[in-house]
Design brief:
single chain; 13 strands; N-(1-d-carboxylethyl)-l-norvaline Dehydrogenase, domain 2; 18 helices; Rossmann fold; binds uridine-5'-diphosphate-xylopyranose
């Protein structure tokens, strides 16, 4: 927003995070974001604060971007951070403003927050709530923010408020709209649902191809060739049809669970029953990867050394939330294997999440003395590894390519046992 020319004040309740951001230091890895942060700090358009009072006095538009993680006691989303943010901001709103929800929430949340706002804001009906779901992908956050494929605006039911909210959002997104980005207006619940439905669909697509991988494993077929052929039907398309270790991260897994929980609450549990299968297929890929590696090592990990390449839930991110790679690494460790992990960016987060694993400063160091090498997150530097890079350091030439990114023929020709998911 600052880069687009707006004056921006960012708030977080974490003082350390605000201090780092104010100093131009990103508290997470996101390609291309740090230069944008620094440029706009230097230009004075972007500032950070921990004061809700400053924020309330400053903003014409307030974006709510707080996380909605899975609750510790079940599938539902934990709305505690979002409720707290609105409860802290609303009583300070003394000037007309638009409050825009970006967090991924169970359908019905916006209506509830609109009531809170109306009850608490001194400015009353001049504090309007809209819902504008966020579709950016980690690793592509800057691009996806500046060039979104659509902008969805959930507007209040009351016509005057809706017209005002739409006008303001069109000003906020003027640059993207000028590029021809579709602008879809909807009521609040529909806008909330666009996000959850999109993530449910993406998760379903991944689990669909991973279910096909299970059938391929049972029948001797090759899921990568199957996916390639399916993708050529443009009704199906190839994106999110990549078979392998499956999805993780801070969004897809918890969003499909929260969606199921919400459907239960709404009395429509059967509507999303299939998402339970989607979740289970996804989690089974992790167990399957462990099984493939265990079998290759003769049936047990006890006393064996395993190199794990990748800890982040996907490449170009340092996010290890619900990471399939770390899950597999921890499972092998629990079965008595010595596991050494390398990830180009996620080492610090991985260490915090799984302190009992070993960590190495490079792929080669992780592979040194390993009886098997597992490629679990498809970072470019791992995809580009040649068999001859690893051969001199490993104890055994076994590679498990859980993301289907290596060339099986090249590895086999170099004397390796190449194993993958869904392929003979
Ligand atoms: C996702 C949505 O894509 C994004 O629109 C939403 O705003 C947030 O959630 P993100 O969590 O950054 O974004 O990751 P994404 O690129 O969607 O990948 C999710 C997971 O699916 C990763 O673990 C990835 O490895 C896996 N994946 C993706 C596959 O296993 N196969 C594929 O074909 C694609």
């Amino acid at each position: 927003m600052a880069d687009l020319g707006f004056e921006v004040l960012g708030l977080d309740v974490d003082e350390d995070r605000i201090a780092r951001l104010s100093g131009g230091d990103l508290p997470f890895y996101e390609p291309g974001l740090e230069p944008v942060l620094r440029r706009n700090l230097a230009d004075g358009r972007l500032r950070f604060s921990t004061s809700f009072r400053d924020l309330a006095d400053f903003g014409d538009v307030h974006f709510l971007c707080v996380g909605t993680p899975q609750r510790a006691d079940g599938y539902a989303a934990d709305l505690g951070h979002l409720d707290a943010a609105v409860a802290a901001l609303a009583p300070l709103l003394r000037r007309p403003c638009l409050v825009v929800g970006k967090s991924t929430v169970p359908v019905g949340t916006a209506a509830h927050l609109a009531r809170t706002l109306a009850d608490l804001a001194p400015v009353g009906g001049d504090a309007v709530l809209a819902w504008n779901p966020e579709f950016l992908r980690e690793g592509f956050a800057v691009h996806d923010t500046l060039h979104p494929d659509r902008i969805v605006a959930g507007l209040p039911a009351e016509q005057g408020a809706a017209g005002h909210a739409e006008k303001v959002l069109r000003e906020v997104y003027a640059a993207a709209l000028a590029d021809g980005t579709p602008f879809v207006t909807a009521d609040l619940p529909t806008a909330e649902l666009v996000k959850t439905a999109a993530n449910a669909f993406l998760a379903t697509k991944i689990s669909f191809i991973n279910a096909m991988a299970e059938v391929c494993e049972a029948s001797g077929a090759d899921v990568t060739r199957l996916a390639e052929a399916l993708a050529l039907d443009d009704r199906i398309g190839g994106r999110f049809l990549g078979p392998g270790l499956g999805f993780g991260g801070g969004c897809l897994p918890k969003d499909i669970r929260a969606f199921m929980a919400r459907a239960d609450e709404l009395g429509a549990p059967r509507a999303l029953g299939f998402l339970r299968e989607v979740d289970e297929i996804n989690v089974r890929r992790r167990a399957r990867t462990v099984e493939v590696a265990r079998r290759a090592l003769g049936g047990s990990f006890a006393g064996r050394a395993v190199a794990v390449l990748g800890a982040a839930f996907k490449p170009d991110s340092d996010d290890v939330r619900d990471s399939p790679a770390l899950d597999v690494a921890a499972a092998i460790r629990a079965e008595g294997g010595t596991v050494t992990v390398h990830d180009p960016r996620a080492m610090a987060n991985a260490r915090r999440a799984q302190p009992s694993l070993r960590y190495a400063g490079s792929a080669l160091e992780a592979a040194r003395g390993a009886d098997a090498v597992l490629l679990l997150t498809e970072w470019r530097e791992f995809r580009e590894l040649a068999p001859s890079d690893l051969a001199p350091v490993v104890a055994g030439r076994i590679v498990v390519d859980a993301r289907n990114v290596l060339d099986p023929a090249a590895w086999r020709a170099a004397g390796w046992t190449y194993l993958a998911l869904g392929r003979p």
